[in-house]
Model the fold of this input.
Amino acid sequence: MPIEELIPQEIDDIPATIQATLTETRPSAQAAARAIRIGKARRIFIIGNGTSLYTSMAATYTARMLAGEGDPFVLAVPAGEFRYFMPAIGAGDVVVGMSASGEFRDVIAAFEQLHGKCTLVGITHVPGSSISKLADHLLVSAGGPSHVPVMTKTYASTLTALHLLLLEIFSAAPAYYDDLAASAERCGQALVQVKKILSDLVPVLAKFDHAFYFGAGNAFASSLEGALKMKEMALLHAEGSETWEMASGPATVVSEKTFCAALYTGDPSDASTMVTSRLAREWGARILDVGPQPVAGDFHIPVQAPLYQAFASLSLVPPLALLAYQVARARGQNPNQPAWRERYYSQGMTHILGE
Done:
């Protein structure tokens, strides 16, 4: 396959990747969760950087949705922050390390430091990687190897694996698993919808140098990943913000020189995101609404809302990744062979695979 087609193909593979992970990874998620329940865990720390951090944040909404009194507390923490400012960790704690490559140095260093002191769970896309040698339990997400320097289907597969682990830990009812499985179809539909408007949307967005993505709850986690994809692929300055935080710092610089992407999950908190979206348009920005309904009137990517908003990222992020790729090409960039690859390698970010 020509190299310029690799990223779009991996994005198109995401629905199948979600389905494969649900089938292939659930047994290992069940085994890890069983051990965690037997051990009566009190705290679960999920650590990662970049995309792996944003998957960690997205999945914590599953824990918030299901945890009851006496259940373990779940917190997503940047891997470097956790490594150097580690709280007191004991036998009642669980650390879940997210690393698509299974080699990210801060995750590996934290696991080496904690080996034998607490329960370690590794989630990766690469079997046989370093994390597999340190983890007490390993979840390998499915969907086949990735050959691109920007995580797209690996994002979806590792997030699906983490959702599975948390659903098992909190003994979720079958309806939750059904809705997680439906994410594959929602994602596929969203990709079909974004392709219908790319020819109109891309020439407009490619002219901007600044972008703000925002949403509430799981849409906030999605906004962080969506902005990262735009930075990595199009080399366009992009920030992800939580809806209410958008009202402070970002609001001071939103103008006709920016575009804003407002993300929706079908949750009542969408009402606040709608207000912010309309205000940003009044301030001069071009608005892209991503969710069930158009709001501000510029552009709209229809994305069906999940039954449980904790799963929204699996259908919100893939169309944003495809949009970022097409904006990159319109700006003369080739995300398949980015100039920044060595910058990532030098920091130990060995998930950068594209050649």
Q: What stands out?
A: The radius of gyration is 19 Å.
